[in-house]
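Translate sequence into C-alpha cells.
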Amino acid sequence: MAKKISMKDIAGELGVSIALVSYVLNGKNQKRINADTAKKILDLAREKNYFPNQIAKSLKNNKTHTLGLIVADISNFFYSYIARYIEDEANRYRNNVLFGSAYEDPERFKSLLNVMMSRQVDGLILAIPDGAEDVIPYLQNLNIPFVVIDRVFPKFQHVTSICLDNFKASEMVVEDFLKRGYKRLGAIGLSTNLFHLHERKRGFTETAQRHIGKENVFVYEVDESDMNNRIESLIHKAIYDDKIDALCCFTNKIAMSTLPIILKYGIEVPKKLGIICYDEAEAYRLFPYPLSYVKQPLKDMSQSAVQFLVDTGKKPQDGIYEFQGELIDVNV
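Result follows.
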C-alpha cells in the first residue's frame, strides 16, 4: 500500500512552506496567494490522492466540521427532502453531515444522539420524537449547539425551532374548501402530543367552525402504528356516516393510506369529495385525479437550520421561526 502523503510531502516536493500548502488546501486567503502556485499545490494533492487528517484538524481547532442530523423517518418523502437540502447547505459551508433516522422512537433517537455526540459533531439538527423532549435541557446543560426542525416544544426556553406556520396553513386549507363550495369538512391527523400537529388541527378546527359551525366540522385521529388497520373504517365513517364532502390529510403518510381507499370506494375527486394533502409526494402522481397540497418551504427551512449553526453572522435569537406554506391548488 502506498504511503499516505502529507502537507509536508507536498511542500517539500514543490519547494514551498507547509503553511502555504495548508492555506491553499483549506481554501484560505486565496486572493493573496499566487494563482499558479496554488494550482500546482492543488494539482499535486489531487495527483497524490491527498486527504486531510480530520482527526488532527479537529484537535487543532476544536472543530470537526461535521453536523449531526436526526430525522423522524428517512423513508418519508418530507424528511428525504430535508436531509438532501441540509446536506447541500452544509457542504456549501465545507461541513459534512452524519444522518440518523429515529422512526419516531424516543429510545432509538437517544441512542443516535449519543453516537453523534461521541463523534463530536459541531452542532445538531433534530426532529425530536414525542416522548424524547427531555434531551433538550440535557443538551443545553452540555452547551451543545442544536436546532429543532419541524417540531416545537413551547415549555422549553432558549430553544431555536424551525417549522411551518401550521395554524396559518390549515386556515388556508379551510378557506380554499369553502371557496369551492364544500360545506362539511373533515380532516385526519395523527394521535400525538406533538405541538406542531396540534397547531395544524387547531387551525383547521377553529377556522372551519367559525365559518360553518361545529356540526359541520369533523376531525379524526389515528395512531401511526395502527394506521393500516384503522384507516379504512375511519374513512368509511367520515364519508358515509358523517357525510363529509371535503377531506384534509394532515400528513403525507396519512394521504398515502387514504388515497387507495378513496379509489376503492369509487369516489370522484374533486366533484364528490375535495381532498387537500400536506406536503408533496411523488406517489401522488399515481392517483388518477389531480391533488392539491400544502407545500412547505423545505429548502428555506433546511438552509436556515444549517446557517443558524455554522454562520456566525446568522445566529438567531432563541425562539420559534415559522415559515409560510403555499397551497398548490390544482383546481385553479
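Note: The chain has three domains: 7-52, 65-164+298-324, 166-295.
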